[in-house]
Design goal:
Helices cover 11% and strands 32% of the residues.
Length: 381
């Protein structure tokens, strides 16, 4: 049976919205969806567009404001021709069409998706790569079948330890495949899904149409776009995007013996906060609102603190919670300066495990996982 992209996804979108628990604000996303949003271009072959911080005023990031990062040029994909092959350490080979996926149980997950290189521009010494500042991040509600349900259909064998996704931007032989794997435990998490829907709409081409993995709380690269294959493995996947890119060197003291590959694949996002907006400072004794967002990967946020005196004193911000495990938390702080002059505003977050952001993260040669204090300079006249 031939299924058109439009008619198929109208059905899936309705199904996903129907499963909403009503707490995650899908309506607030769609009301702003048509607003213009000037994404910030960053050098990269071929596509890197950063979210303007003004978009962080919406808990659900509008799709047209959501950052974009693709390693290849995008190709048109016909939904009716797409399928996902499931193979490897399984008892049953599967080939699933989009219609097959739509007929499985659907799950909604609100997740803060962030590129591992977000903040790379702030590392010193400088690091090569896309010079993301603060906006290679966004918060959206994704919907699709849990990956665990697909793996159950494939009948995992006892040797299974990892699950690899293969993503591609087209069918030509010149296309470079993007392969990343995740441990089986994370693959079986009910919140790890094969997303076909974003903010109540079908995935856009830039964000992974027709299907992307959604690995909540982990770096954006784990949520592979345009998934065409799922392979169950006994060990971590091979390939440039798994064994070279998106890895961090191990600390020398962490290696008890020489290792063939002294690095580790990136997984969960680090604890982080950003200052998104500051109301215009006019004069001393004028109340100023400082607001932003904080997130902790797989952990929640317990507090956010703001300093207006280079970190000498810290004051708690008010948190605005929305009850979604993997989503960012908005915060707000009211400040009344008592003098004129230039000020540097710092923000830092603490997660539910009691970890607090450091002022400056450890440097690494790829410029991954920047999560130092966010800082903004203002002048009070």
């Amino acid at each position: 049976m031939t299924v058109s992209r439009r008619s198929f996804f109208l059905g899936v979108a309705g199904l996903c919205v129907g499963f909403s628990n009503g707490r995650q604000g899908i309506g607030s996303a769609t009301t702003r969806e048509e607003e213009s949003c000037a994404l910030i271009p960053r050098w990269s072959p071929p596509i890197a567009l950063e979210m303007p911080l003004s978009a962080a005023s919406s808990w659900i990031t509008p799709i047209n404001c959501f950052y974009v990062f693709n390693h290849q040029e995008l190709f048109d994909i016909a939904a009716g021709d797409w399928s996902i092959a499931v193979s490897g350490t399984v008892g049953r080979f599967l080939k699933l069409s989009l219609l097959d996926l739509s007929q499985l149980r659907q799950r909604e997950v609100t997740n803060t998706l962030e590129c591992a290189g977000n903040g790379r521009a702030f590392f010193r010494p400088e690091v090569a790569g896309v010079q993301w500042e603060r906006g290679a991040v966004g918060n959206a509600t994704f919907c699709g079948p849990p990956l665990s349900d697909v793996l159950k259909l494939a009948r995992l064998r006892k040797e299974a330890r990892h699950v690899a996704f293969t993503g591609t931007d087209g069918f030509s032989q010149a296309s470079r495949l993007f392969v990343r794997s995740i441990p089986l435990e994370k693959a079986l998490d009910p919140n790890t899904i094969l997303a076909m829907n974003m903010n109540g709409r079908p995935l856009s081409r830039a964000h992974g149409f027709p299907v992307r993995a959604l690995v909540p709380g982990w770096i954006g690269a784990a949520s592979v776009k345009r998934v065409s294959q799922i392979v169950v493995l006994e060990e971590e996947a091979k390939g440039d995007f798994m064994q070279d890119a998106y890895r961090l060197p191990l600390d020398s003291h962490a290696a008890a013996a020489p290792q063939r590959d002294p690095s580790v694949a990136l997984t969960s996002l680090p604890l982080k906060s950003i200052i998104a907006q500051i109301s215009a400072p006019r004069t001393p004794h004028w109340s100023i609102t400082i607001s932003g967002a904080a997130w902790g990967g797989e952990l929640g946020i317990s507090k956010v603190e703001v300093s207006t005196d280079f970190g000498k004193n810290w004051r708690k911000a008010r948190l605005r919670r929305h009850g979604a495990k993997y989503a960012w938390t908005f915060w707000e702080y009211q400040w009344t300066p008592l003098r004129r002059g230039q000020f540097t505003i710092f923000a830092r977050a603490t997660d539910t495990a009691g970890t607090t952001q450091m002022e400056t993260p450890k440097w690494n040669p790829r410029g991954y996982l920047w999560n130092g204090f966010d800082r903004v300079q203002i002048v009070v006249e």
